[in-house]
């Protein structure tokens, strides 16, 4: 995708295209539009990262709270966003047996009870064994450490979603 095309987008189209690179947080892309013209995709990503970094702890926790649980109620009810549906199914969340499903439910509940925000991990970079291991391990973190750790995962998800958008735009032009 030509960065000049992106730079020429009115903010409505920019937010339509990039609004879900951070799950259910279109505000971030709507805010980042102010920083155009962008040098390239990495520049857009850098501005998104900077916006998140500058948020107070409550803002970072707010971003985490916008993420659906892995193998949670949104997955069960079919109300995940397209991106989350793809990511969660790729990580094996749609093929859990009843014991695995219960384990995820219990670990997610324990994590949420402990931290006050949901466990977030970049599902595309992990399989279900990794996810269970990470959930169990990260439960031991203190809140500040875990908040930053989870935000790092949000940035990985964002980076992969940005690349997917560019790739799918290029494919539509081929
Ligand atoms: N709680 C989560 O980590 N959710 C998710 N991670 C992803 O990569 N996609 C999701 O929906």
From TrEMBL:
> Where is the protein found, in the record's own terms?
Peroxisome
Provide the Gene Ontology terms for cellular component.
Answer: peroxisome
Q: Which pathway is recorded for this entry?
A: Purine metabolism; urate degradation; (S)-allantoin from urate: step 3/3
Keywords of the record, alphabetical order, are: Decarboxylase, Lyase, Peroxisome, Purine metabolism
Report the enzyme's class at the first EC level.
lyase
Q: What domain of life?
A: Eukaryota
Q: Which InterPro entries match?
A: OHCU_decarboxylase (IPR018020), OHCU_decarboxylase-1 (IPR017580), OHCU_decarboxylase_sf (IPR036778)
Query: Which GO molecular function, any one, fits this protein according to its record?
Result: 2-oxo-4-hydroxy-4-carboxy-5-ureidoimidazoline decarboxylase activity
E.C. no: 4.1.1.97
GO terms for biological process, alphabetical: allantoin metabolic process; purine nucleobase metabolic process; urate catabolic process
Catalytic reactions of this protein: 5-hydroxy-2-oxo-4-ureido-2,5-dihydro-1H-imidazole-5-carboxylate + H(+) = (S)-allantoin + CO2
Role noted for this protein: Catalyzes the stereoselective decarboxylation of 2-oxo-4-hydroxy-4-carboxy-5-ureidoimidazoline (OHCU) to (S)-allantoin.
UniProt similarity note: Belongs to the OHCU decarboxylase family.
Under the heading NCBIfam families, the entry gives: UHCUDC
From the Swiss-Prot or TrEMBL record, give the protein name.
2-oxo-4-hydroxy-4-carboxy-5-ureidoimidazoline decarboxylase
Q: Which organism is it from?
A: Labeo rohita
């Amino acid at each position: 995708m030509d960065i000049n095309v992106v730079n020429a987008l009115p903010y409505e189209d920019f937010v339509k295209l990039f609004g879900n690179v951070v799950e259910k947080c279109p505000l971030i892309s709507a805010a980042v539009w102010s920083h155009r013209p962008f040098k390239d995709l990495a520049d857009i990503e850098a501005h998104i990262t900077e916006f998140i970094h500058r948020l107070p702890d409550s803002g970072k926790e707010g971003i985490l709270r916008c993420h659906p649980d892995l193998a949670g109620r949104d997955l069960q009810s079919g109300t995940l966003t397209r991106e989350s549906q793809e990511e969660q199914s790729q990580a094996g969340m749609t093929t859990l047996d009843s014991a695995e499903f219960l384990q995820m439910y219990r670990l997610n509940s324990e994590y949420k009870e402990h931290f006050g925000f949901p466990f977030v991990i970049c599902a595309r970079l992990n399989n279900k064994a990794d996810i269970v291991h990470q959930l169990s391990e990260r439960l031991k973190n203190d809140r500040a450490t875990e908040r930053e750790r989870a935000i790092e995962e949000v940035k990985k998800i964002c980076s992969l979603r940005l690349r997917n958008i560019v790739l799918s735009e290029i494919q539509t032009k081929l």
